[in-house]
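Weekly structure sync, notes
Attendees: PL (lead), two postdocs, one rotation student
Agenda item 3: pending single-chain targets
PL asked that the sequence for the first pending target be pasted directly into the notes so everyone works from the same version. It is reproduced below exactly as submitted, 427 residues in total.
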Amino acid sequence: MTKEKPFTMQDAITLVRESFPEGSRLPEMFEKCISDTLDRTIRIKPDGSVFVITGDIPAMWLRDSSCQLRPFILFAGSDPKIMEILVKLVDKQMECILYDPYANAFNDDGHSCWRVDLTDMKPYLWERKYEIDSLCFPVQLSYLLWKNTGCTRQFNQRWLDAVRQIINVFRTEQDHEKLSPYTFEREDCFFTDTLSRGGKGALVKGNTGLIWSGFRPSDDACVYGYLIPSNMLACVVLRNIAQIAKEVYQDEELAAEAAGFAEEVDRAIREYAYLPGLPEKIYAYEVDGFGQYNVMDDANLPSLLSMPYIGYCPKTDPAYLSTRKWILSDNNPFYYSGKVLKGIGSPHTPSRYVWDIALCMQGLTSVDQAEKEEILTMLEKGDAGTGMMHEGVDVDDPEQYTRPWFSWANSVFCEFLLDCCGVRVEL
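Predicted structure, written out during the meeting:
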């Protein structure tokens, strides 16, 4: 973060209030969103462990919980209670990964699975959709906590065991067809909620260096199994692991293994992910390794839009800028423009619904002040008077939206406003 002195949540509320003009609703919205995440989504269990629900769904997604708590890293250095919550959350996430590294969401009572799918279900699973990012975000949260506060208490033996499990899964899923034990089928559902070919998913070329993912961070099935934004995040996180292994655990062997794996994935991205036949380098959203490309971007993180946010490249990277221009246009079938909003939506929600997460991410990755101000105006006008962020919002009528309580969106909104004030979590 850019602040040298300890920075509290109240400091953040005051800073945002002082940084926006009188009459703006943004400071009020910020205070409501940041407080709601802290007050209503964090559950301290009788054993002292931490469980973070996503909002209107009483389950913990590994991805969502990491993103919900990411802005609170800014306050951890001045608030021991917040620091303890972050450390305990990382520990719970690593416990979940060791319980089942192919699961994306967990319950805290051992008997409330959302559905009994045709896969290796277990009592504490809410859902078992394998998504690369579910294994990445907890590692990145632990890394960012260390880099921004100096805290190393999250790096215990469970963390190390979970990271080795993550690497093992990623290695397995580099040759999904031959090596993977994972299958997933759901009966009586939309096609986006299940995998084809008896639960194996669409065929991909093996041994490309890319890592296979069954599902996107939207929890929708991948069209082609090599999901490029998630491979980018895996590349970043493997480098995080290498640095932690070397500097915290003094494990040179693990550091070398993770660093080499990161370079392998990065090379594969450069070999397979660019759209062919274009004068500029533009990334596909998904590929199969055989030459098929899915040209789009989705609002959920990681996305192509979020490449600088996750730490894969600078905001000024030429390939990123070309890709950004492409996906923030009608070239992206999930880019919508209407009377009130314009931005990226998702096949997970109705057509012409823009996601608040994507608007905030567009602002967080922009170098154009006018663009940021336009996005702030859209966010202020698009909350339907609730003071909260939502999932998807109708571009013509913000009164029509999905998910009235979506904590991940609230937290990314808070990150964007703090970023506009010059305060950010440093990668």
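Discussion points:
- The mean pLDDT is 97.
- The chain has one domain: 24-420.
Action: rotation student to compare against the earlier draft before next sync.
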